[in-house]
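Our consortium's second objective concerns turning raw sequence data into structural hypotheses that experimental partners can test. To show how far this objective has progressed, the report includes one record in full. It was chosen at random from the queue rather than selected for favorable results. The single chain below, 150 residues long, was entered without modification.
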Amino acid sequence: MTSPMTGRETSVVACLSSSSTAGQGQAFGWISSLGPIGEAPGSADPYQRRLNDLVAQLSMAIRETALQHGTDYIPFHEQLSAQIAASPGKALAKFRFLPIYGDTFRYFVLRQTSDEIGAANGWKFHVDGVHLNRRGGMILAELVQDFLDS
């Protein structure tokens, strides 16, 4: 007897099911796991640890559901986590709106790139601990390109 799906698995299945093309019922060809939040694996900060535990659980649910439904899986979480582990940075200890406004000002008014903003904020793979900069985005882009080339 199979166990009932968790809420996370149900959500992933709904996403896979709703991605049919042109009403033909064909599932989308691939799905990617989620990227880690912050850049401090194994952080003692409870906020950072809880966020990454949830992201890891969701990524695992995505992977398992993709395998069960015959959808190709792109291991972004695993790849970015390995890169971050090789070059750890700071934790996302709390979410605050004021820095987001400052980053928005830097981007739209001062015309700074996401890489410049991320570096000014002390991030290596992110702009703000959540959104990817070019370096983090290239990891995902390379995984997708490898999938498309295969």
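The partners drew two points from this record. The chain has one domain: 7-149. Residues 31 and 73 are 5 Å apart (CA to CA). Both points have been shared with the crystallography group to help prioritize constructs.
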